Amino acid sequence: MDVNNLKQSHKLLVEYKYEPAKLERGYTNKTLYINVGENRIESKDVPDSMKEKFIGGKGYGLKYLWDATSPETKWNDPENEIVIAGGPLCGITQYPGAGKSLVVTISPMTNIPIDSNVGGYFGPYLKFSGWDALEIQGKSQKDVIIYIDGNNGVIKVEEAPLEAIDGHVISEQLTEMYADSEEDKKNISVISAGTAADHANIGLLNFSFYDMRRKVARLKQAGRGGIGRVFRDKKIKAIVIKFKGTKGDLNKPANQSLINKAGIKLHKQIHDYDDVQCRMRQIGTANIIEVMDEYDLLPTHNYQYGGHPDTHKISSNVFVEKYITQGMPDGCWYGCSLSCAKAADHFELKTGPYKGHKVTIDGPEYENAAGLGSNCGIFDPEMILEGNFYCDTYGVDTISFGTICAFAMECYERGIIDKEVTGGLDLRFGNAEAQMELLHQMSRGEGFGALIGLGVRQLKEIFVKEHGADADFLNDIGMEQKGLEVSEYLPKESLAQQGGYGLTNKGPQHDEAWLIFMDMVNNQIPTFEDKAEALHYFPMFRTWFGLMGLCKLPWNDTTPPDNHLTDEPAKMPEHVQHYVNIYNGVTGMNIDKNQLILQSERVYNFQRIFNIRRGKGLRQHDAMPYRSMGPVTIEEYESRQERYDNQLRELLDYDPEGKTTEEKIKVMREYRVSQYEQLTDAVYKRRGWTPNGVPTAEHLRKIGMDLPELIDVIEKHI
């Protein structure tokens, strides 16, 4: 349908005119509040106390969500909010990776706050339009589109009955609708979900940016925790922002030279070394597929194994040579020379409602290749790309979908479920056609695909209740924690990475701590105290990116040539100083690297207490499924028997000779669970928490977060 006809079908519900606030030192000090149930739009002032304690980005999202909700608020209650915020560094163009925004809501998967870091142009455009954050609350009765014109200071909420819902279609439609010309399309960013997000708790949000070279609206994802499900439950079809006039000084920094110097140095480093380091400009995060396989870390067959003989079929070079467009600068925000946002152009789809269409696919990311691919026993690069596309456009979290499918496939192969349960689908590992059918069913809200969209936690309950499955076994092999599916790394041989997944606030997502190489490969953190220190520092440091509006990849996916000579090479000290300098350059502050961590500690502990207020956030909620720690089944043990037998001898002084595999598994399990519990003790102590995982009042005072509302929560648990 012609976009003019689409626009004519809109019905204006409310219009709000404003004078865009002036940006100064990274902040506008204004938040835009929209209630789609009441058709109400307001401007809120951001107090200095909130800037001091919560900084921006994720911090603002958590604070607004806390204030808007009660401990009993459900994800689909009108008072649940979706909060989108960049931080003070969001939108600078001199330093790579500064186009991020953070999205926060109560998750339908976990029933606690979820935060997701996303690229695209929306975050910077929101700030340039005069807003540090966007709060969305309420539930509309009919599908609506929110439109923000940042140049003219106009915001509209309109009924929008005719636009598509699927991400790649509606992003193109609305980019065309609101742009004045082809050149103007780069000034449009669209947030959308997809048809699966109408039904599946694992729905995501797509944030668009217009690729002027490819002439297509491309999509980046706020993927984890079901944010897209909340978006569609509120009957929001899309949010559109338009801002014309992007340039390098819009943040009105206090000292531009500090930012420029850091940027020039990193740009040169990327230019000189990326091709021989991580090859981000060639293939993006998929560069590590074969590396993970080599180190037995690539999740295979529902995390049973760490590699597969067919991994070479989906190695990074296969995607580079056959699918991913080369020789074209990629990036999801201006000035990012790391250029990891790779795309496969003119890919012809083989299945589903868009069969025969030639599309641009953003990917594959490593997580997509591992989750949709190896973890489900699928080693067909074209089916991985097909699944990648449909997950994006339907609004489905690829990590959760891959992990859920892998779980269902193992249950099928073990006879826990059968074709009668799956609706005739043969869910053996490697059946890519069955995986795709699940995805298409999910988009329609029907069949076994609709069940898949509930997530591993609910599937376990269903399989026990309705099909007589062994609950203990399903809890061992179901790779979820707090209700969120584990992302795509096999942590069995890395105790620190088990903690990096389990001792998180939002659930097992690697954006808090990725310690596999430090721990397992380089043996840099041998003791519990060393691991605890790493599980303090790295989650706090990575939290900082979410406060600022930054991507973490320029920090550790490109390396200074002399980094190995530094005292703490894993921390990338030169890059840490860059971040200190650009923060001081934008804000005019004078923090050091220790104050950077303090900023994050305040928000991190706030999120922990937020969880506790909602009935989670204690030690029992940090337990991990045993498959993340060691071999659950005979097949797993015997696939790595020499390794495990040697560990029994060397670590436990236990002689495995003449013992059955079941006996050895039992001894190994007792040891590994004990190790995780000791690690938990050490991490809680380092973080200033009680043995039950509750931040102490003393620690809150130390970091300047002894707010009365937080003290009130923790006193009930100490």
From TrEMBL:
<dbReference type="GO" id="GO:0046872">
    <property type="term" value="F:metal ion binding"/>
</dbReference>
<keyword id="KW-0408">Iron</keyword>
<dbReference type="InterPro" id="IPR036503">
    <property type="entry name" value="Ald_Fedxn_OxRdtase_N_sf"/>
</dbReference>
<dbReference type="InterPro" id="IPR013984">
    <property type="entry name" value="Ald_Fedxn_OxRdtase_dom2"/>
</dbReference>
<feature type="domain" description="Aldehyde ferredoxin oxidoreductase N-terminal">
    <location>
        <begin position="27"/>
        <end position="247"/>
    </location>
</feature>
<dbReference type="InterPro" id="IPR001203">
    <property type="entry name" value="OxRdtase_Ald_Fedxn_C"/>
</dbReference>
<dbReference type="InterPro" id="IPR013985">
    <property type="entry name" value="Ald_Fedxn_OxRdtase_dom3"/>
</dbReference>
<protein>
    <submittedName>
        <fullName>Aldehyde:ferredoxin oxidoreductase</fullName>
    </submittedName>
</protein>
<dbReference type="GO" id="GO:0016625">
    <property type="term" value="F:oxidoreductase activity, acting on the aldehyde or oxo group of donors, iron-sulfur protein as acceptor"/>
</dbReference>
<dbReference type="InterPro" id="IPR036021">
    <property type="entry name" value="Tungsten_al_ferr_oxy-like_C"/>
</dbReference>
<comment type="similarity">
    <text>Belongs to the AOR/FOR family.</text>
</comment>
<dbReference type="InterPro" id="IPR013983">
    <property type="entry name" value="Ald_Fedxn_OxRdtase_N"/>
</dbReference>
<dbReference type="Pfam" id="PF01314">
    <property type="entry name" value="AFOR_C"/>
</dbReference>
<dbReference type="Pfam" id="PF02730">
    <property type="entry name" value="AFOR_N"/>
</dbReference>
<keyword id="KW-0004">4Fe-4S</keyword>
<dbReference type="InterPro" id="IPR051919">
    <property type="entry name" value="W-dependent_AOR"/>
</dbReference>
<dbReference type="GO" id="GO:0009055">
    <property type="term" value="F:electron transfer activity"/>
</dbReference>
<keyword id="KW-0411">Iron-sulfur</keyword>
<keyword id="KW-0560">Oxidoreductase</keyword>
<dbReference type="GO" id="GO:0051539">
    <property type="term" value="F:4 iron, 4 sulfur cluster binding"/>
</dbReference>
<keyword id="KW-0479">Metal-binding</keyword>
